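hey
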């Protein structure tokens, strides 16, 4: 059953940097992971087995952190990685191929200073990140399925000092 599959996948990913995403519209389940190289890898679950390993766009620097999120209403996923240089990259999956790579920021190399979440009602993706390793303010960009917005910096940040970790959560009411 699905509980067994989830347990097996979880136990096998203990030493990997991995992220699993699915679309509630019946789209594929996708797993993205790193083998501490410059290439993010992924596999797609077809309902009974994981497909062959394939690669997304390679980045500059070994991958330290990886985040994969799926849209609710379209066959789309966004993959974000942060490398050993601190560079934060994003790329989108359109159900067939990965888009060109976009570097959105450069945070500290030792902490995950970005995250991705899809808004519940609009299904627009938000990518929040540190623009530089010394940033005390964070920035964000949105993806509506076709256009990546320019950066907006939040200068009245609710924190003081350099942020060490960014995590987004979808508002269940909006």
């Amino acid at each position: 059953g699905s509980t067994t599959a989830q347990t097996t996948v979880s136990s096998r990913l203990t030493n990997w940097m991995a992220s699993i995403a699915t679309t509630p519209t019946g789209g594929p389940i996708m797993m993205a992971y790193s083998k501490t190289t410059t290439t993010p890898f992924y596999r797609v679950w077809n309902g009974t087995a994981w497909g062959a390993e394939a690669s997304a766009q390679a980045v500059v620097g070994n991958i330290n952190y990886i985040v994969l999120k799926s849209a609710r209403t379209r066959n789309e996923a966004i993959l974000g990685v942060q490398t050993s240089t601190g560079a934060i990259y994003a790329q989108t999956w359109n159900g067939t191929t990965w888009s060109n790579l976009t570097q959105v920021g450069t945070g500290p190399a030792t902490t995950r200073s970005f995250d991705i979440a899809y808004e519940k009602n609009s299904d627009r993706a938000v990518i929040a990140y540190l623009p530089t390793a010394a940033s005390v303010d964070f920035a964000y960009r949105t993806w509506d399925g076709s256009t990546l917005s320019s950066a907006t910096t939040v200068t009245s940040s609710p924190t003081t000092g350099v942020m060490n970790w960014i995590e987004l959560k979808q508002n269940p009411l909006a």
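The two ends are 33 Å apart (CA to CA). The CA atoms of residues 86 and 109 lie 4 Å apart.
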